[in-house]
Request: fold
Amino acid sequence: MSGKIKYLLYRDGRYFARLVIPVKLRPYFDGRTELRQALGADRRSATRMHPVALAELMHQIALAERKLAEVSGAQVTPGRYPLSLGQIAMRSYQARLRQDEDARNFSPDYAGVGIDDGYAAKLRDGIAGKLRDKDLEALVGHRITHFQLLGNTTAAYGSTEWRDLARAICISEYEALARVFERDDGDFSGQPEHPLLRNAEPEELPLPPVSLRGLFADYIASRNQLGRGRESERRWSPVIKHLHKHLGHDDARRISKQDLMAWRDNLMQRLSPKTVNDVYLAAIRTIFSWAVREDRLPENPATAVRQEVPKKVKTRPKGFTLEEAERVLTFSVSYFPKPLAGRASTEFPETTAAKRWIPLLCAFTGARVTEMSQLRKEDVFQEGGINVIKITPDAGTVKTDEYRDVPLHRQIVELGFLDFVAQAASGPLFYRTKDGTQSLSGARMTSGRVSDWLRASGLVPAKVAPNHAWRHRFRTVAMELGLSDRIIDAVSGHAVLKQRAADGYGHATLKAMARLVDALPSYSIAGHVAASDKPQHAANGPLTEEN
Reply:
């Protein structure tokens, strides 16, 4: 059974070459949605005529694209459907023979006209390389323009490539004249003799476009099926939008390495090298890699497109020092919003609470700031006598997509956090919602406000991230105490690196995590009585997974 030929349509006993007209070009076709050209009822004949008919339809599309570009000022994309010299020559040869067939069908006198010997002589001179560029232009320039409009070549007049193409078309025209001469005597069996035509590779029909935005939507949908992708959708949507605007089209098949390098250079005019490389290029590389795995694209043009990032000069640790941490926490837990012109502050109580409690919670959990800003009242509870906060994707987002229960440090309890939670309304603790339901955007907004507020305080060094510095501080303190890396990871939410088979066995229990949290020393916070460093959750003992 013969295979399916793209753009070949069978309807009501007849075959047609068929192309869908892009929406933006339909005004140039009286609103029609597709182009068709009849190929007859015989499949073998239709298959033979199909490439030439399709080329003519593509020519109409190309002309409409050119008109649209002229009206809108958009740049015409050259070389959209590139072909080799042999393929262009063969397409021209087939088109000429089809014209010959049509002429014989509609004009009985056509066969008696004969061949123009002068035209044939000029073609021979063109093949031999005897003609100047202007003579070649006069002889076959209209054919070259035709294939340029189709996007089959970008050869510029006078270039070596252009002369090669002109001579190739001279060959196709001369071979077509030979077939016409043979047909005038009733011989329709002739085949091209020149090696350029005889050895021409079969032409691959253009594949349908693959929507860049559609690829992104499908990629996100595939992630959502796995319970993932929300963060990628938020961060990468502007990336896809910007690339689409930069390219001026939505066809992922047409995106080349050169296109992406030009896009990268454009981004570098307004963004940092790290953002360009780690967000924009990384997003496209990931989406296209998925498309290749799913057989949506044949290759990933972004694989080798990178932006070099300058190495950061480190002049201090990423985390807070003890002195910096204690100054920030003193400022935080003592915070009250300033009144405005003698009136009470208009700051939401949830925002005030976030500024007071989130730095302290981060200091003793090593959690990501959004994991703390998304906490709900129901996420704070007791289990087996241990005060616990639940960090869960149900409240917003968790990078590892796994919930974890984290024991509260005694200093957090002694400073009144549980009293604050008891008095709070149900739902999110640190941002306001209309119906009490969680909102990831609300949690992120709170995280940003806390960061900006701490930065404005002047207590955070210039090269330290106000929120993330607690994550570094937590791990530094835990390592100084010689605590288990496995338990540190479990509390802070770092993915466990499995270097041995045994690393995948057992789990960090709440009791084991409570021992670690209890081992952390309290901070000296001015204006507050220092909490006792006697462990409250469990008896002293080695911090192992079994405990």
About this structure: The longest strand covers residues 14-20.
